[in-house]
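Tokens as discussed.
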């Protein structure tokens, strides 16, 4: 592995609605942080709930996936060494506001995501 891995932008679009795919994206993000990569994790669609710290009316149940690390634990790993963003439109559709977000999670939209993935050397993955 190179001494300085290229930046990685990972978008996770699902949560309890597709737990295996969601957990795969979160696991890749957390593993990349642990490997020293600069990681930007974007939580969109139902995955927006994974960036919150309070139960909001209508919030889908957290998911448990056999033989997998809990999604909240994986998001915490990414927060320790990377950046986590919740899609602002996805949050608005779900009634998620700034006060509902985990500490250090930000709200942002498509313009910033596009800017990040078009930066030189960035690898973008979508789950």
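Sequence:
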């Amino acid at each position: 592995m190179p001494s300085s891995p290229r930046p990685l932008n990972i978008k996770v679009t699902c949560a309890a609605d597709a737990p295996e795919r969601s957990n795969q994206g979160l696991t890749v993000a957390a593993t990349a942080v642990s490997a020293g990569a600069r990681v930007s994790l974007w939580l969109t669609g139902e995955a927006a709930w994974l960036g919150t710290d309070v139960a909001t009316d209508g919030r889908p149940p957290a998911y448990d996936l056999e033989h997998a690390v809990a999604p909240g634990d994986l998001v915490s790993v990414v927060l320790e060494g990377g950046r986590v963003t919740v899609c602002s439109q996805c949050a608005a559709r779900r009634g998620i506001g700034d006060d509902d977000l985990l500490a250090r999670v930000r709200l942002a939209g498509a313009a910033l995501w596009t800017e990040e993935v078009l930066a030189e050397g960035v690898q973008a993955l979508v789950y």
